[in-house]
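Sequence in, structure out.
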Amino acid sequence: MQHTPSGGAVPGTAAADSDLMSIGTVLNVLREEFPEVTISKIRFLESEGLIEPQRTPSGYRKFSAGDVERLGHVLRMQRDHYLPLKVIREHLDALERGEDVRLPSVGRQRDGGEGERTGLVELFPEADAPTAARIGRDELLAVAGVDEQQLKEWESYGLVTPLPDGSYDAETVTVAALVVELGQYGIEPRHLRAVKAAADREAGLVDQVVAPLRRHRNPQTRAHAEARTKELAQLAVKLHAALVQTALGVRLS
């Protein structure tokens, strides 16, 4: 509750205070749509300047309905678009200033139906981007919210690799966003070399299975090889996630 300099309560603030929520209440509200969200995540987003909840004299956070709505926007843009927090913050700030801004779409859906994230970036929403889209170096830097030195570090560890013409495939945007988000938890690119090595081994295993199909003279058989590759990749990802959950002794979904 706010007070006047003489110590009296400011009229009308009691009702406003009663509408504020504790961080536990906010967590329960958000978990209806975002079951994976945690109190630590909310505090982290506050530390990154995405929200600014009020504080009681004893230091407890108190969230308004606007704070909760903004948190929902942030979590939704992370989940649906794989956008770095810097880009999200700039987008929300622009909206609050009344600017008409477009949100870069990372993780565009393709051939997978509702809700499937594929990592295809659509930097220019007014144009119909092809499925096998590529992204230039400058665009990747802008979307990921990193500088040239950071990108070179990722490349040195093999986390992202440019194509012969210097561009990157669309999935690189998803990789970049995830590397950035892991970095916010103290996991540096050098720590991810083991993850990259494991992914390479899994890809090699899939290649061994489908290589005979890819070399076949029949075009239909070669097309079947591509479909089989996607199926095996999905199974490998699911197995990897299950093994990580088992090793950590937690349930992530």
